[in-house]
Amino acid sequence: MKAAPSGYEKRPMTQIAKSSTSKTQFARDLKDKDTVASPFLIKFSALAVGKNGKPFMNLILMDKSGEIEGKIWEDVNRHAGQAVRDAFIWVEGRCQVYQGRRQVVVNRLQLLREDEVEPKDYLAESALDPEALYSQLLGFVDSMKDPHYQALAQAVLKDDPEVVDRMKRAPAAKAVHHAYKSGLLEHMVSIAGILNHLAGHYGKYLDRDLLLLGGFFHDIGKLWELSFDRVTDYTTEGKLIGHLVMGVELIDRKIRELDSQPGRLPTPFPEDKKLLIKHLVLAHHGQLDYGSPKRPKCLEALILHMVDDMDSKVNAIRTFIEQDQTPGRWTALSRQYERYFYKPDWAMPEESGEGG
Ligand SMILES: [Fe+2]
Ligand SMILES: [Fe+2]
Questions:
Q1: Selecting from 1.10.579.10, 2.120.10.30, 2.40.50.140, 3.90.1150.10, what CATH number does the domain 16-121 have?
Q2: Which end of the chain has fewer CB atoms at under 10 Å, N or C?
Q3: What's the confidence (pLDDT) of residue 206?
């Protein structure tokens, strides 16, 4: 076990100057034997006991570039109260590769205040601009023809300030796909685009407006299923109810509001349309054992399920390939997909070295 660097115990915690807490080292770039001196957000923290009976801590440190494991071997009891999930900490230590995985052995840490960090350095975000995504989304809403479906889309996506605010920030998941800021909106717009093409392709056999509405609403419950101010996690409502039922509840409430406001709808919201949009949301996971209480029972529901599955896998695999650091043309093993992926040119590091 390594001893802490000399002077480590004596150096007062307050010595870290504010300017030094800015982010210059990123998790993704850390390599074997690198000296680490950088702030991170703690994604995961757990106390464990080694074979020798000594306590140690397992951490996952994150920033917008990705994440890296951390270990605290020394002074564990003192650090346990500081190195907690969702905390910003200054970390000093060393990166090493252990059993093929990079980890930071932490020699020193200090809790940072929120005003000492730039939160956007710690949360990965969509490569696409949320405002541009939002106007694309509204473009699809404006193109709808059915007055009831369109009014419902507007009531949720345009007129509800809480939805609009959360939609521009929410990730689509805790992990796996679109798991970054504005990821849900990116997923919604991507799906709407694909559904739009398919509606043209299959013509009269598909209800384009119902499909689009399904694309907008299938995951809308995630706005409250997940908390995402810092590390993304499930809320109590998310754990107990889940985004499918939460989405249906929102649709139900909005339709009741529309029906009660004179002049919002040409006629009361038709029962069949209400049932169909709820069905699309409830059936979008496709199978009972994936959390859908009903399997898709109309073409629109089946297509929404398949497009949702496709869009989330394309994003998940693309992200996996992008973040892979294995030298050569093949990624490390994807545990989720139980295979290695071939890395195309866009995923290969540039040859030019430092400047690239
Ligand atoms: Fe979903
Ligand atoms: Fe989805």
A1: 2.40.50.140
A2: C
A3: 98
Distance (angstroms) between ligand 2 centre and the Cα of 119 equals: 26
Residue ranges near ligand 1 (ion) with Cβ within 5 Å: 219
CA of 66 to the centre of ligand 2 (A): 22
Selection from 27, 230, 3 nearest residue 108 by Cα: 3
Query: DSSP letter at 232?
Result: -
Chain segment 85-135, per-residue pLDDT in tens: 989 999 999 999 988 789 999 999 999 988 899 888 998 889 899 999 999
Cβ distance 172 to 184 under 8 Å? yes
Q: What is the residue extent of each domain of the chain?
A: 16-121, 130-318
Task: Please tell us whether the domain made up of 130-318 is placed in CATH 1.10.3210.
Answer: yes
How does pLDDT run across 14-39, given as a tens digit for each residue? 445 445 678 889 998 999 999 999 99
Distance 309 CA to ligand 1 centre (A): 9
pLDDT at residue number 258: 97
| H or E segment to which residue 152 belongs | helix 147-157
Q: Give the DSSP letter string of 163-214.
A: HHHHHHH--S-SSSSS-SBTHHHHHHHHHHHHHHHHHHHHGGGS-HHHHHHH
Cα 184 to Cα 196: distance, rounded to the nearest angstrom: 18
Cα–chain center distance at 311 = 14
The pTM assigned to this predicted structure is 0.85
